[in-house]
Amino acid sequence: MKAIALIALCTLLAACASTGSAVAEQTVSIPLSDLSSTAQYYEYPVGSVTVRFFAVTAADGSIKTAFDACDVCGSQKKGYRQEGDQMVCNNCGNRYPIAGLGTQNTRGGGCWPGYLPNEVQGDQLVFKVSDLEAGRHRFV
Fold first, then answer.
1. Is 54 left (phi over 0), alpha (psi -120 to 50) or beta?
2. Under 8 Å between Cβ of 63 and 118
3. CB burial string 108-135: b at 16+ within 10 A, e below
4. Greater pLDDT, 122 or 113
5. Distances in whole angstroms, Cα of residue 83 to Cα of each of 39, 80, 98, 110
6. What does the pLDDT read at residue 109?
7. In what order do the strands lie in the sheet with 86-89?
């Protein structure tokens, strides 16, 4: 698993015209050139907790990302492994097609790779630090 050597960026979201101050959203990024059809695993420190996630390119060329844990099995700290075009839970054995990842589990509960939003900006895959921090509970 790659330790995150992601570059922390400050992205300017808005400026307050009257004061000249700015509101910034912190982000981290991964070069798109690092991604392929083989899942790449990353870690990001949030306080004393290490948040794990993965990124993989689906057959259609879209990029899929998820936390390496879910709401149910996350406490087992076993994560997912890739088998062909599927991600497999190392705890319960459930299988998830890579093409279907990158969506929120709207039913709640159940094993499902935890949703992690991302955005492609130029040649970088960008994550909001606040989204990584929001996934911290899966790794406590």
1. beta
2. yes
3. eeebbbbbbebeeeeebbbbbbebbebb
4. 122
5. 10, 10, 10, 20
6. 62
7. 80-83, 86-89, 95-97
Q: Domain tally for the chain?
A: 1
Report the CATH number at residue 79: 2.102.10.10
pLDDT value, residue 58: 96
Min mean pLDDT across 43-47, 74-78, 86-90 is at 74-78
55: amino acid identity, one letter = A
Does position 27 have pLDDT exceeding 50, yes or no?
Answer: yes
Pairing of strands 63-67, 22-31: unpaired
Q: What domain range includes position 87?
A: 2-139
Query: CA–CA separation, 2 vs 9, rounded Å?
Result: 19
The chain-wide mean pLDDT, for the chain, equals: 82
